[in-house]
Every structure is written in structure tokens, then in C-alpha cells.
Design goal:
By secondary structure, the protein is mainly alpha-helical. Helices cover 61% and strands 4% of the residues. It is built from 16 helices and 8 strands. The strands form 3 sheets. The chain has a 3-stranded antiparallel beta sheet with strand order 2-1-3. Helix 13 crosses helix 14. The protein is elongated, with a radius of gyration of 47 Å. The termini are far apart.
Length: 514
């Protein structure tokens, strides 16, 4: 409570308590739409106030804020202040702006369906309101404010296209409110609606119960890899053409407020550029006007592009180079990711080779459908004639994704499945062999048995070594005292006797020859 009245959170709580069911849902839907309009109004007014030379008053700024809020839902706008005087459509929706209304509607539906989030007043689920009533109430309340905003924006320079505005507002409100109510009820996986069950009964049971969940997870991983690769391609292009990107800022506006507005617009278009980069890596590329297609293999000629930072990263016209061809690594990595997810899930379920191939093909189809929808959402028209088509083409982008994921993913899945199966079959054998080798090493070796054969020949006896007891070596130490004395006497006797010279035998000496 405050001195002037009741605070906004307390007011919301009281309204939900006094008006349960659809009435609370309508109120929450109105609040969600009002908050979204308020955010855009504040942003536009800040930029209008900071502009040094505004060309319109605050009323036109508020009209522009309402038109941008409708554009954030995907609605197509029509510009009336063209040079030729002919109204021109503006259908490229910055996808980052879509996050704000989706989050607000989701939060409003969740709070309306489950006002007692702590669940302390009763058993679980006792305080939750009927899902259908809350969902319908939030949708109706949001659409009422959306219709009023469309009527107000029709008086400005950016006017909504009524058919596109109605279709996109209904789609966003219904989908986001349904997701919020489902979240409030604990995201149950209960029985599907009867119409959906009948359509699923036509499909094979194996596809619905086993293959489709695995293929959906693999396709989601593949789409994330393609989006990350597309962002990497765009970042590389911006760095490569850094000079042209900086120059485009100065060409658009000289005021700092205008440059901030251009920077915010570029940030809001980052998801669009990511999808454009993914389409470029897949091969079809993007259409930048009539007759101007940009792809990794070639870039055809076309009209002169406006000065804009993201468009400055577009490759020059002509045949592609090895640098642009390297973008083909992005879908290859995505296909390998899809194949890996399918093979790992197939191992846990003991799938056959044919079912693995089947799951990869289903994942490729889902991935192609997702890329086709994202390509359509990321593009649109920026004018008449030459600018009637701007962005990637949905059908070509989706078909290219199916070809890449299926063509590369199927052989990769088979090879990975074979390799992992071979590893699982060889590993037990290698473990058993290693255990046997370790056991043999730990066991003591038996004594060798001599082989039968001829008797060994005795070798020479080893010589006896005499110990040196005198500390020095004397050759007469080999004899005892008696032998030594007799030897000395014999030597003395021989030295005293005279020696007669020996005569040679022969005829001169008179001795007979022997």
C-alpha cells in the first residue's frame, strides 16, 4: 500500500482473486499488450528527444512506436512517405523484437492460470484455473489491445497491412498463451487432442513412438549447429569488410542519436542475419533484390544495395573463391551432429541399420522444414519491383538442408554405427587377453627339465691359485725349502765347472754325421 492507492502488483493480484477464470485472463492479456506498447513507446520517444533535427512531432513518434510494436509480431507495414509517392511494403521483421511480445504473453498466461505460484494454500494443482478459459481470456485481451494499436498506427506514415497484422497477432497470441498455460500446469504429456490423435494414427506406430522423438532431438541439434555456423559466417564477413561497415555508419547519419538507432536496429536484425548466413552456407544463399543472388559459389549482379552495416558484409560480385567455399563446412558439421545423435540413441534402443537410416532421413526432413520456416520469417519485402524479395528463399533453403543432412548424415551414421559396434565387440576380447597375460606374469615359472642326450664331456680342471703370503712375488715360492737348497747347489756346481766348446758335426771335424 502507498499513500495514493494500491501498487500495481497488488492490484493485479486482487483482480485475479476477484475475477477468476476468463476475466482474469483478459486482464492479464491487456496488461501484457500494454507493457509491450509502453516499452516501444519509451524507446522511440527517447530517440526522438535526442535527435537534433526531428522531422515530426511527438504524435508521429507515438504512431511509429505502435507500428514497430505490430512489426515485432511479424506484421507487414506500408510506407507512405516514398520518393515516388507510391506506397511501399516493409515486411522484414527484426526477429529479436519478437522475443518481447512472446515473453509477455507467455508470462501473462502462466500467471493467470496459476495465480498461487508457491502452492501453499492447498494441494498441488488445486489453485490452478481451467486451462481453456484462461487461454481464451489472455488471447482475447491481447487481441483487443492489438486491434486498438493497429487502428492508431494506421494514421501515421507507417501503416499496418490489415490482413498480415490480423494473422500474425492471432498466431503470436494463441501460441504464446497456450505455452504459458501449459507451463503453469507442469508441462503435462497427457493425451493429445482428438483431432491431432486422428492425424497421428495414420502414421506408422514405429515412427510416432520410437523414431520421431529421436529424430526431433537430432533435428533440433542440427538447426542449432546451422544457426551457429551462420552467425560465424556473418561475423567473418563483417570482419573481412570492416572498413565498409564503419563507413556505412557515417553515410547513414552524422548524429550520435541516429548512429545509436542504427546500432540498435542492427542488433535487432542479428537473428535474421544468422539465418541468412545459414542459407548462404547451405548453398542457395539470399536474394538481395531482383536478379541479385548471393551464394558461396557465385554472386550475381543486381541493384545497388543501400548503405547499411549488415549489407556491407555481402561478398563482391563474381565467382566464389576457396574462402567462400569453406562455408560448406557448416552443413557438414550439422549433418555429423545429427548422425551422432541418432546413432547414440539407436545404440540404447538396439536399432537395426535400416532404422538408423530411417531416423536420419526423418531428422533431415524435420531440419529442412525448420530451415524453410526460419528463412521465410527472416526475409520479406522492402519495397516494390527490385526490392520485392529480400532474404533467403524458404523452399530452396529447406531443400538444400534436406540434401545436406540426408546425403552426408546417412553414410556418417552408418560408419559411426559400424565403428562403435566394432569397438564394443573387440573390447571384451582385448580385456580377456590382457587379463590372461597379467595372470601368466604373476604365476611363478616351473623348473626346466633337462632334455635327454649324450653324456657331457669333462672340461679342463681349473687351475689353483696360490695365495701370496709374503706381500711380494718370488718365482721360487713354488718350491719348498729342500728343493730350493738342492737347486742352489746344482747351480753353483755348474757355474764352477769349465765348459768345453761344442764342435759342429761334419767332414771337417772328423766326426761322423748323424
Amino acid at each position: 500500500m502507498t499513500g495514493r492507492g494500491v501498487s500495481l502488483p497488488l492490484l493485479l493480484t486482487r483482480v485475479r482473486e476477484r475475477s477468476p477464470g476468463p476475466a482474469a485472463g483478459v486482464f492479464c492479456g491487456v496488461v501484457a499488450a500494454g507493457l509491450g506498447l509502453g516499452v516501444f513507446a519509451v524507446l522511440v520517444m527517447v530517440l526522438w528527444i535526442s535527435s537534433p533535427y526531428p522531422d515530426s512531432g511527438p504524435g508521429e513518434a507515438l504512431h511509429t512506436a505502435a507500428a514497430l510494436w505490430l512489426l515485432a509480431h511479424g506484421a507487414e507495414l506500408v510506407r507512405t512517405d516514398t520518393l515516388s509517392g507510391v506506397p511501399a511494403p516493409m515486411g522484414v521483421t527484426p526477429l529479436l523484437l519478437l522475443a518481447l511480445p512472446v515473453w509477455l504473453v507467455h508470462r501473462a498466461a502462466r500467471d493467470a492460470a496459476d495465480p498461487d505460484e508457491e502452492g501453499t494454500d492447498g494441494p498441488e494443482g488445486a489453485s490452478r484455473l481451467p486451462a481453456a478459459g484462461v487461454w481464451a481470456g489472455v488471447t482475447i485481451g491481447y487481441l483487443l489491445v492489438g486491434a486498438a494499436a493497429a487502428c492508431y498506427a494506421s494514421g501515421g506514415e507507417l501503416r499496418p497491412s490489415w490482413v498480415s497484422c490480423g494473422a500474425h497477432l492471432v498466431l503470436v497470441a494463441v501460441a504464446a498463451a497456450g505455452a504459458g498455460v501449459w507451463t503453469a500446469h507442469g508441462r503435462p504429456r497427457g493425451p493429445l487432442p482428438q483431432a491431432l490423435r486422428k492425424s497421428l494414427d495414420v502414421l506408422p506406430e514405429v515412427l510416432v513412438r520410437e523414431v520421431l522423438p529421436v529424430a526431433a532431438r537430432a533435428a533440433a541439434a542440427g538447426v542449432l549447429v546451422l544457426a551457429a555456423g551462420g552467425a560465424l559466417v556473418v561475423a567473418a564477413g563483417l570482419v573481412w569488410h570492416g572498413g565498409a561497415v564503419r563507413e556505412s555508419f557515417t553515410q547513414l547519419t552524422a548524429a550520435w542519436s541516429g548512429r545509436v538507432a542504427v546500432l540498435l536496429l542492427c542488433l535487432a536484425l542479428v537473428p535474421n542475419a544468422t539465418i541468412w548466413g545459414a542459407a548462404y552456407a547451405l548453398g542457395p544463399g539470399a536474394v538481395l533484390g531482383a536478379g541479385h543472388t548471393v551464394g558461396p559459389l557465385a554472386s550475381s549482379g543486381g541493384p545497388l544495395l543501400p548503405a547499411f552495416p549488415l549489407l556491407a558484409a555481402v561478398p563482391a560480385r563474381g565467382v566464389g573463391s576457396p574462402l567462400t567455399w569453406s562455408a560448406g563446412a557448416v552443413p557438414v558439421v550439422a549433418a555429423v551432429t545429427v548422425a551422432w545423435f541418432v546413432v547414440v540413441a539407436g545404440e540404447a534402443a538396439a536399432w537395426s541399420r535400416g532404422r538408423v537410416v530411417y531416423a536420419v532421413c526423418v531428422a533431415a526432413a524435420l531440419c529442412g522444414a525448420a530451415l524453410a520456416v526460419l528463412a521465410v520469417a527472416a526475409g520479406g519485402a522492402l519495397g516494390e519491383a527490385a526490392l520485392a524479395s529480400f532474404g533467403p528463399e524458404g523452399r530452396r533453403t529447406g531443400a538444400a538442408a534436406v540434401v545436406w543432412i540426408g546425403g552426408v548424415g546417412v553414410p556418417v551414421a552408418l560408419v559411426v554405427r559400424w565403428w562403435r559396434g566394432r569397438e564394443s565387440a573387440v573390447r571384451p576380447r582385448m580385456s580377456a587377453w590382457a587379463a590372461s597375460v597379467a595372470a601368466r606374469r604373476q604365476r611363478p615359472a616351473p623348473d626346466p627339465v633337462p632334455a635327454p642326450g649324450p653324456a657331457p664331456v669333462p672340461g679342463p680342471e681349473p687351475e689353483l691359485e696360490l695365495a701370496d703370503t709374503s706381500g711380494g712375488f718370488d718365482p721360487y715360492d713354488y718350491f719348498d725349502e729342500t728343493s730350493r737348497a738342492s737347486r742352489w747347489a746344482l747351480l753353483k756346481e755348474e757355474s764352477t765347472q769349465p765348459r768345453t766348446p761344442e764342435r759342429p758335426a761334419g767332414p771337417e771335424s772328423g766326426l761322423p754325421e748323424s
